[in-house]
């Protein structure tokens, strides 16, 4: 079970009070992390759609059930089926999220640079990708803080940022290159959704351990 | 080298001077206080502090912080960006996951003094910049002008992604000395409509925003907008200022609302018999007000304007009325240009008096009028037209809101509210303070006017109501002869219960119009829409639904009575609707 680190005072909700807010409660922190993950997922979904509309011809568009096999994170030891998820401990839920987040930081940086190679990547797409990339870094910090608070584990940085996960060599074929980028975006969208889901599951468990799905 | 030694010597000597009687005391610096931190967009933040005394010596300040859960002390990364005595944390240094514990240290030659530490949670200190690109345009809805205000979130606030959620508030006021701001909360929307404008007035508008947990921004820069003047016989909305009820059937020179307003909104409708009939819905305030009836000379229209005009009233005393109206509109609460109540009274008198003409004349020809609901009367001057006009006795106060204390001796209240324009209230004047109970009796007793309608279902041609009392009358139906039957509202429907009226719509009919025979047509439907921009005036029930009815499509041959209700900006808690009618011939 989760160890709750008890802190003396909780921050008062009212905005005017600049005062005595020595720490952010675990619950509040989890809410913020969830909110963060939600935003990331939403923007990643928008980015993926934008990219798809602009650059992917209809027949090549991935359906939601496809491309699972092509995702870079498929080798990560994170739960994928419902039953697995139900059995996983809170601690591993959190760590899974962290793994996912850390795995995507580099590829997203790559995506930003790769979009430059497109002739007419819409500015919105570029901005969104940049936004997501920045927020992901921020999310990592949040998850780390959460782990520290919930699990009382010490800080550790990019433990899971394995270099091997993502190799990017410029592919000579334009279409292949585009497809790879498309796959990246789709996979990220899925993983972002996973992050959000795990976190929400975690929150649910805080409230009612046995009734969450 | 020498200077250095000199400095050292000086420093060593300083303490010796401390207790010196030359008056200069050197001491440790005062404690820095009032540390305040703000973030404009939840991505960066700045802290400012107030230096204490410097102890007579050059003092420097430093800010140190710790992040929650860590013992590492960091120093402020940037003392310059935000100005003197400040520390700026950029994106990289700002996190929302942990709180910051901040201390400011003042140092001078004698030592250091620490401020009290302060804990900061960035999410709770967000104070955005004001909204931008405030635009105000005058638009028209069926001929009635209204203001459409729109704006954008402050540039730096990332509302698009949902990082910050902002709510907005705007405020409006007339460019006049004594007018006050009226605030409206716009929620998350970035657009807002303001109705009930004063024609020709100039309005100031500002908007500000606030995140869900955080502080209000400063007000944006002011936008000015001038509402065009209404010209006669054009569709135009005249309304008093926001806190005045609008009245309607009028045209620019429609008259009168009393100039003596208090916080009460009054509305009443008067209908005149034939030639001199005019449909009038008026508003006045307060018991002192005399709403007028315009009984002026009739024009060939008989009070019915052209299809498109709102010329309900025949205004003979055009100029006077207009003036008066102006006065009224700029009624006490807002007005500065009023000519003075006295004059208004006089004018009102004239107008009021006119009403009398109607009643006696009202012959049974056609029905015609709507009971002259309010016989506005001014106590100040006798009506030239009707010497024994009982009108003079009463001031009619029409209260449109429920706040009017029942049975208040001060008034003859005439409460009338065509809230949803789905019903008419007929108001009677009271000679004396009258508890509004036995309308029936009053009606019957009334002799001055032949408002008989009510009890016997026999509407006499002259439907003018007795000026004796104030009461509500509900229109029951049109009888075969197309006469308006008035039915007194049971005393249960006292003023205080105005709120309950809201649900009684089905009992009321909307005045549909006056046909070519000068018959008042009533229609039973109720149209209601919620006006989104309703200001929340808690006290008044009328706020609960204010509708803007789009007039039904009408042709000239068909009497259409476009009834429009204007929402009046709530002021002292009132929101009222004005009903406007225009008669088509």
UniProtKB/TrEMBL annotation, chain A:
Pfam families: Hormone_1
Cell membrane found in the keyword field: no
Gene3D superfamilies tied to this protein: 1.20.1250.10
One GO location term (cellular component): extracellular space
Assigned keywords, A-Z: Disulfide bond, Glycoprotein, Hormone, Secreted, Signal
One GO BP: positive regulation of growth
UniProt xrefs under InterPro entries: 4_helix_cytokine-like_core, Somatotropin/Prolactin, Somatotropin_CS
Subcellular localization(s) per the UniProt record: Secreted
Source superkingdom: Eukaryota
Record has Ion transport as a keyword: no
MF term (GO), any: growth hormone receptor binding
Similarity comment: family membership: Belongs to the somatotropin/prolactin family.
Protein name in UniProt: Somatolactin alpha
Species: Neolamprologus brichardi
Organism phylogeny: Eukaryota, Metazoa, Chordata, Craniata, Vertebrata
TrEMBL record, chain B:
Residue ranges, compositional bias (Low complexity): 293-310
Signal peptide: 1-23
Keywords in alphabetical order: Disulfide bond, Glycoprotein, Membrane, Metal-binding, Receptor, Repeat, Signal, Transmembrane, Transmembrane helix, Zinc
Domain of life: Eukaryota
Domain (Fibronectin type-III) ranges: 31-129, 130-230
Recorded topology in the membrane: Single-pass type I membrane protein
InterPro entries: FN3_dom, FN3_sf, Growth/epo_recpt_lig-bind, Ig-like_fold, Long_hematopoietin_rcpt_CS, Type-I_Cytokine_Rcpt
Family: Belongs to the type I cytokine receptor family. Type 1 subfamily.
Record's function text: This is a receptor for the anterior pituitary hormone prolactin.
Free-text note on domains in this protein's UniProt record: The WSXWS motif appears to be necessary for proper protein folding and thereby efficient intracellular transport and cell-surface receptor binding.
Name of the protein this chain belongs to: Prolactin receptor
